[in-house]
Amino acid sequence: MSEYRITLESGESFMAKQGELLLDAALRQGVTINHSCRNGTCRTCLFEIKEGSVTQEGEEICMISQQERENGRRLLCMSTANSDAVLGKLQRRKRASEGSAVE
Amino acid sequence: MEEKVIVMGEAGRKAVDDASAVLKRLYYTERECMRTLGGYLVSVSDWELKKKLPYHIWQDSLRADALRSRVLELRYPRRDVDQDHDEALTQYLQQLIRSLNDAELIVGVYFVTKQALAEAYDTYLTESDPLDDAPTYEFMRRFSSEIHAQLDEIRAIYDALPEVISNEDHTRTQALSELLQEIGGLFGTEASKGPVSISEALVREPYTAPLVPARDPRFRKAIYHMPPVEWNTFLEHQIWGGINHVNEIWAAEVPGTVLWKWDDMPWEFYLETARWCFDESRHCMMGEQRMKAWGFRTGIDFPVVGDHYESVSHMGELALLCLLHDFETNGPGLKSTFKAKFEKMGDTASSQDFDYDWADESIHLQYGYKWCLHRLGGDNDKLEDLKDEVRETWNAWIEQAHQRWDYEPFLSELRQKIVKFEAMACE
Ligand code: FES
Ligand SMILES: [Fe+2]
Ligand SMILES: [Fe+2]
């Protein structure tokens, strides 16, 4: 069965088996990822996929919009990897009053 | 020749259309009682009442939900269940929040309306068919006793209210009872349709929620709730954490306010917000229980104020909800850290509180995101901007508050007690 290396921006990494939920994999290996509901509804585990391919499972029940998914965001408690991946924290968007659209 | 009909068994009791019409009225009444209590929560002075109402709000929402679902099972058009309510009943229910104090609120919502609801459920059960309408029976047979339990709890609080002790007035009870009778009771009558005239005794200005939440007049004056100092020792962490938890009552007041202000939301909003309101009152009571165990008196030995609420209330109720949502975004990180820390130090009373609080936070985050976004037309960017704006408003407010007040005499008194506790631990 394939296993993928998932690396966080902090440099920490963990292995995720094919089909394994990324949050479960991280917690199993003692890697701390901020989380709460573990069912895709609280958005605490929202990350940006910097590299690699990650599938958002249960799209219809998860609190994540299509636009966010298209922008490479995933809720890790309900996501699985299809390759090695690098995950980053969300970048705060600049407010309209602060000038340019994206920080 | 006409056929002769022989009927065996009991006569029919209630047609489906009649049942759904009555159940819809009861649903509407429960829902409006719940919204009234939510809206008035921020105005409630009495501390015991303030902590009790959110529980009832949640119970009311569950009864309303069961009734609403049942109405829809009875061939009632989905679109109409939340609209086209009897104008006279609406007029009656609108009087309930126009209360001048806690006692008036209790009289209207509890002693007149909930009392009538309990009687209506008993009547419904005797007048309908237990087999044909069994799905209604299943939930409704618990309703009357649940409401009586609410009435008993509230009666005890009511009897101790200063305005009742000094001058209990039955005029409002009587006027509201008469009005309810005039509109045909909660079941209504055909003749009751249309507007009714409101008696002189009930005439009041429309309700406006205060920008600064009311706190029990027995509490000592304060501007903000958290000691403006670092949490150094574990003991300080235990006590400051307790103070913080008690003051989460503001987070119950916010859902209460939006329950009332927003009257055009999907039913799920009311159901979820009622639960949110109750959960936050539980968090407050978790803190109070621990603070009491240390011997601290609420509002006397430590401040209880609505500082968070006050800081953004001038920006409207969406800003309030958004501030709560923004604080909750940090909740899981904070609560899970507290849980682990208190567990490690052997304070399982606190760690268990934080564990359940953390679980509650998961659903609140969903509510907050969903309903703030709903009010913002689904625009994620607007939500992020508003969260930034309210957080900045709060930060500026508290910074200014720190300049105005040094938390005395609470801080010195709390420190003295902490020294005593530390000495006890060394004995
Ligand atoms: S932990 Fe709640 S959305 Fe992932
Ligand atoms: Fe809370
Ligand atoms: Fe919460």
User: Could you give the order of the helices and strands of chain B?
Assistant: HHHHHHHHHHHHHHHHH
Regions of chain A with pLDDT < 50 over 5+ consecutive residues?
A: 99-103
Average pLDDT confidence of chain A is: 89
- Ligand names: FE2/S2 (inorganic) cluster, fe (ii) ion
Question: Which CATH class of the largest domain in chain B applies here?
Answer: Mainly Alpha
Which ranges of chain B are low-confidence, i.e. pLDDT below 50, for 5 or more consecutive residues? none
CATH topology of the largest domain in chain B: Ferritin
Our measurement of the CA-to-CA distance between the termini of chain B, rounded to an integer number of angstroms, reads 103 Å
> pLDDT average of chain B, as an integer?
95
Helix content of chain A: 10-25%
Q: Ends of chain A: how far apart?
A: 39 Å
Number of strands of chain A: 7
Number of extended strands of chain B: 0
CATH class of chain A: Alpha Beta
Number of domains of chain B: 2
Summed up, the helix count of chain B is 17
Q: What is the radius of gyration of chain B?
A: 24 Å
CATH 2nd-level architecture of the largest domain in chain B: Up-down Bundle
User: Largest sheet of chain B at a glance?
Assistant: none
The coarse overall form of chain B would be: elongated
Assembly state here?
heterodimer
Pfam families (chain B): DUF455
InterPro entries (chain B): DUF455
Family (chain A): Belongs to the 2Fe2S plant-type ferredoxin family.
Keywords (chain A): 2Fe-2S, Electron transport, Iron, Iron-sulfur, Metal-binding, Transport
Short key terms for the protein model shown above:
heterodimer; A: 103 residues; alpha+beta; Ubiquitin-like (UB roll); five-stranded mixed beta sheet; two-stranded antiparallel sheet; 29% strand; disordered C terminus; B: 427 residues; mainly alpha; Heme Oxygenase, Chain A; Ferritin; 2 domains; 17 helices; binds FE2/S2 (inorganic) cluster; binds fe (ii) ion; metal-binding (chain A)
